[in-house]
Every structure is written in structure tokens, then in C-alpha cells.
Design a protein that fits this description.
Helix 1 (about 15-25) packs antiparallel against helix 8 (about 240-275) and helix 3 runs parallel beside helix 4 (about 100-110). The chain contains 11 helices and 12 strands. It folds into 2 domains: about 5-10 and about 255-380, Aspartate Aminotransferase, domain 1 (Alpha-Beta Complex), CATH 3.90.1150.10; about 15-250, Aspartate Aminotransferase, domain 2, CATH 3.40.640.10. The longest helix is centred in the last third of the chain and has 38 residues, at about 240-275. It is globular and about 65 Å long. By secondary structure, the protein is of the alpha/beta class. The strands form 3 sheets. Strands 2-8-7-6-5-3-4 form a 7-stranded mixed β-sheet, with helices on both faces.
Length: about 375
């Protein structure tokens, strides 16, 4: 039976070129980048090259890039770091109801420490209203953290508009760009972004590495204590092989971005057309515009998510109900609840398809037809 992986928003396979770039480092370049001898200088050069590529990818300076263990650490460093460093100026944070749990759970922890958090609502397409953001800002607001593109439904937020609003305020603007990076154009200066998080394993790089962009001059505290790595902002010996892999993944993602966006849009159109031809009842759980090209979240009335996922897996199709970080949870998606309400059938009958490296039009056609078979079988039983 053919196995088709359509869960790239959870994690993506490593590109062969990324692995090729990492292997020599893992075999030979073992020096500590903080060492002053030749072994250390060589790995320091590798890290510096990667920092240059990372900075250029978002229009930043090299000194504004902090390598982390991934998106979750980057989110934590930005949110907790800003909150603790700026509590003398205020204790209010603004985020949204549909953030990744790396942001939501971090904000919940800060609430326990005495900070106040406003969770902005979203409309049925998953977008915030800029007017709501303006209304939520107070003289105590020190941070606005709003994701670039949603990992479950693919909705893209009005990032530039958010940046323009926050720029007129004392607050800093952080965005979790884990899903958008490598597919959508990002320029932190033009968009008014003060902090940005990304993760390597979402762009066909290795797991366990990512970076945080922190604009020069921003005030935030470190979360780890030890050596003086990353300009004293993130202690711990750098993951050189991972960072080299991240560099290659960034280069590939930028080179192939336009091609991938066109391909994934074609994948979406193909799936939707096949379901229409197969007379399958479905609804897309986001707007048709302003969405990530690789994410498609679909509601199939008369089904339930557990049966959908099990039957799709038995058919050789790997999809998900949303964030991999809540896999196995019986709770409905917090994103769909925010969009449609807790009593909506959509929260219990929707699955996410996400495309990436290795997927072909043949795969998508086969997956769409298998999905139609599963949905028809489940709706007959109900």
C-alpha cells in the first residue's frame, strides 16, 4: 500500500542537501565555537556563515539573530524575556486565541507571575480585527505577540498592519513565523517586527534548531545562564551541525519559494476539484485568500475526527487534526473553537492536510480519492 505523508505542518522530512551539508560537520568539525584555537575558529566560521544567511532571509542584521533549539524556545525567549525585562513599564501582553501552544502556554505562565494577558478573538476565517488590537492597547502594554500564519488552518494575519499600530506604542511586536518562513516574503524592518521566531524542521532542516530575531536595541532578559554564547543572550554551546543544516534549509527554501507556492496551490485546487467530482460534502476552514499555501483544513460533515484519522492512516494517508503538539488530546481544536464556537460540529469533524517535500500531483490525486472513499464510508455509517 502506498504511504503518503501530508502532515508537513507538523514536521517535514530533511532535504538530502541539508543532510549532506551536516555530515562533514558531524564527522570532522567538532570544535567548540567558543574556543580560540583552530578547531574552534573553524566551527565559529560555520556558525557566522549561517547567521549571515539567516539574517539576510528576513532583512535583519547578523547581530540580531539568536540561534535556539527551535520555535518553542524562540517564542519563550521573546515573550518571557520581554515581560521580565520590561515589567517596570507595564504588565500587559496582547496575543490571540489561536496561537500555537508555545505562545499560549507561555502567556498562561506569565499570568501566574502577575502579568495580564488579552486574548484577541478571531473571525470565522481566523483573522483578528486591527480595530480590536487598537482597542486592547493600554499604557501598560509591553508586548504584542501574534503569529504570522496559523499552523492549523493556515490563516495569515495582517502583519504589516499590526506592525504599524504597535510602532506607535511602547510595546514590542513579536510574531511566531514558524509556518510562514520560507514560503511567504518576510522583511522585519518593513513590517515593523521586533521579534520573530522560526524553526528548522518546518523547512526540511534538522529538528532541534531554529532562531529568534531580536531587533537591535530591544530590551529582553535571557532565560538560560552559563557561558556567553550568542552575545550573552542564550547560554550553551551552539549546535553547529544543526545550524549548518538550518543554513542550507534556509537557502533552499528561499530559492524554491515561488515554485513551492504555485505547486501547493495546485495541490489544494486538485483536492477540492476531486471532492466536488466525487460529490463529497465539505467546507474549507479558512478564507480562500490570505492563507498559507501548504495548509488545508477541511470540515467533513457527518464524520468525527478520530474515525477520520484512523481510517486515513489505514488507507496510507498521514494527516492530522491540527497541531502535533496536542496529538492524542480529546479536546477540540482551540483554533476551530475560537473561529466557530465550542458547539460547532466543525470542531469535531475537521482534519488538516499540509503539503511539502516529496509530494507529487499523483500523490495528491490518490490521497483526495482515498479521502473521498473514507468520508463516504463514515457518513454512510452515521
Amino acid at each position: 500500500m502506498k504511504q503518503i505523508y501530508l502532515d508537513h505542518a507538523a514536521t517535514s522530512p530533511m532535504h538530502p542537501a541539508v543532510l549532506d551539508s551536516m555530515l562533514p560537520v558531524m564527522r570532522e568539525d567538532f570544535g567548540n565555537p567558543s574556543s580560540i584555537h583552530g578547531f574552534g575558529r573553524k566551527t565559529r566560521h560555520l556558525v557566522d556563515e549561517a547567521r549571515h544567511v539567516a539574517a539576510n532571509s528576513i532583512g535583519a542584521k547578523e547581530t540580531e539573530i539568536i540561534f535556539t533549539s527551535g520555535g518553542t524556545e524562540a517564542d519563550n525567549l521573546a515573550i518571557i524575556g520581554v515581560a521580565r525585562a520590561n515589567k517596570s513599564r507595564g504588565n500587559h501582553i496582547i496575543t490571540t486565541q489561536i496561537e500555537h501552544h508555545a505562545v499560549l502556554h507561555t502567556c498562561e505562565q506569565l499570568e501566574k507571575e502577575g502579568f495580564e494577558v488579552t486574548y484577541l478573538p478571531v473571525d470565522e476565517h481566523g483573522q483578528i480585527k486591527l480595530a480590536d488590537l487598537k482597542d486592547a492597547l493600554t499604557d501598560k502594554t509591553i508586548l504584542v505577540t501574534i503569529m504570522y500564519g496559523n499552523n492549523e488552518v493556515g490563516t495569515v494575519q495582517p502583519i504589516k498592519g499590526i506592525g504599524e499600530i504597535v510602532k506607535e506604542h511602547q510595546a514590542y511586536f513579536h510574531t511566531d513565523a514558524v509556518q510562514a518562513f520560507g514560503l511567504l516574503p518576510i522583511n522585519v524592518k518593513e513590517q515593523g517586527i521586533d521579534f520573530l521566531s522560526m524553526s528548522s524542521h518546518k523547512i526540511n532542516g534538522p529538528k532541534g534548531v531554529g532562531f529568534l530575531y531580536a531587533r537591535a536595541g530591544v530590551s529582553f532578559s535571557t532565560l538560560t545562564y552559563g557561558g556567553e554564547q550568542e552575545r550573552k543572550r542564550r547560554a550553551g554551546t551552539e549546535n553547529v551541525a544543526g545550524i549548518v543544516g538550518l543554513k542550507t534549509a534556509i537557502e533552499l527554501s528561499l530559492e524554491q519559494a515561488k515554485e513551492k507556492v504555485a505547486l501547493y496551490k495546485n495541490f489544494k485546487e486538485t483536492m477540492l476539484q476531486i471532492w466536488q467530482e466525487e460529490d463529497v460534502t465539505f467546507q474549507i476552514n479558512s478564507g480562500t485568500e490570505e492563507t498559507l499555501p501548504h495548509v488545508l483544513n477541511v470540515y467533513f460533515p457527518g464524520t468525527n475526527v478520530e474515525s477520520l484519522l484512523v481510517n486515513m492512516d489505514l488507507a496510507g494517508i498521514a494527516v492530522s487534526s491540527g497541531s502535533a503538539c496536542t496529538a492524542g488530546s480529546i479536546d477540540p481544536s482551540h483554533v476551530l473553537v475560537a473561529m466557530f464556537g465550542k458547539d460547532s460540529d466543525k470542531t469535531a469533524s475537521s482534519i488538516r492536510f499540509s503539503f511539502g517535500l516529496g509530494n507529487t500531483l499523483e500523490d495528491i490525486t490518490h490521497a483526495a480519492k482515498e479521502t473521498a472513499k473514507v468520508v463516504k464510508r463514515l457518513t454512510r455509517k452515521s
